[in-house]
Amino acid sequence: MTLEEFFARHRRVAVAFSGGVDSAYLLGEALAHGAACTAYFVRTPFQPAVELRDAEETAAILGAELRVLPLDVLADPQVAANPADRCYHCKRRIFAAIAAAAGAEGYDTLLDGTNASDDAGDRPGMRALAELAVLSPLRLCGVTKDQVRRGARAMGLPVWDKPSYACLATRIPTGTPIAAADLERVERGENILMDMGFRDFRLRLRAGGLLQLRQEDMAAAQARWPELQRRLGADFPHLTIDHIPRPGREN
């Protein structure tokens, strides 16, 4: 099945929209194939402000309707406790919120941007998608991550080369309860790293602070180590550095 065939069958859809390249490309394809659609961004303490800005910019470029739904996922004890299956509980809350809002606007088909390169065994949130009957057209149609990036670039979307993003909750070790203040610390630090020109990284709350970077960025980070310590020291006084393990699961 092609995306054209998928959208010929599904003419009215709600798109779970994260601000990343997968859901951006999916939204663009839905619009290109004439589907009536609205994008839904769920604003939780796990998403930094930059993700919402990217979502708003992308929706504006595509001329898409965007709904922003606030949701306090930390009000759910099963999420705040940060168990190994936290992602499942969080996804359940997020997609249930989208389904309720979309249903009120007449949408009965909910889509997400999971693509054919994603490993279902490595993403516990996929169980929530299955339980809530969320469809993943990119995965169903065999569209890979490379194809998504090429397609998004052809659409003129600035997020076409945006690194894959894992939410702020993944910066806190599994089993450590999640506090809003800790998420805010991580967001402040990661904003500083972006301001310094780094793009693909994780700033984790482990042993006083662990900065993980791509192997190719390690030399630049080491050369700027005094600046990193100075700018991040208030929130991460014992910062260490390592490369992002690949392959590997978040958290």
Ordered list of secondary-structure elements with their pairings:
Layout: H1 3-9, E1 12-16, H2 21-32, E2 36-43, H3 49-62, E3 65-70, H4 77-80, H5 86-104, E4 110-111, H6 125-131, H7 137-140, H8 145-154, H9 180-195, E5 201-204, E6 210-213, H10 218-223, H11 225-232, E7 240-243
Parallel strand pairs: 1-2, 1-4, 2-3, 6-7
Antiparallel strand pairs: 5-6
Helix pairs in contact: 2-3, 2-8, 5-6
What is the end-to-end distance?
Answer: 34 Å
Largest sheet: 4 strands, parallel
Question: Rounded to an integer, what's the Rg over CA atoms?
Answer: 18 Å
Query: What is the β-strand count?
Result: 7
Structural class comes to alpha/beta
Strand sequence of the main sheet, in spatial order? Answer: 3-2-1-4
Element string (H = helix, E = strand): HEHEHEHHEHHHHEEHHE
Residue windows where pLDDT falls under 50 for at least 5 positions: 247-251
Strand-residue fraction? 5-15%
- Mean pLDDT, rounded to whole units? 92
Taken from the alpha-carbon principal axes, the silhouette is globular
Helix content: 40-55%
- Tally of contiguous helical segments: 11
Fold and architecture overview:
With 251 residues, this protein is α/β, with parallel strands linked by helices. The protein is built from 11 helices and 7 strands. The protein has a 4-stranded parallel β-sheet with strand order 3-2-1-4, with helices on both faces. Strand 1, helix 2 and strand 2 form a beta-alpha-beta unit. The longest helix is centred in the middle third of the chain and has 19 residues.
Short description:
The protein is α/β, with parallel strands linked by helices and 251 residues long. 43% of the residues lie in helices and 13% in strands. It has a 4-stranded parallel sheet, with helices on both faces. It has a 3-stranded mixed sheet with strand order 5-6-7, with helices on one face.
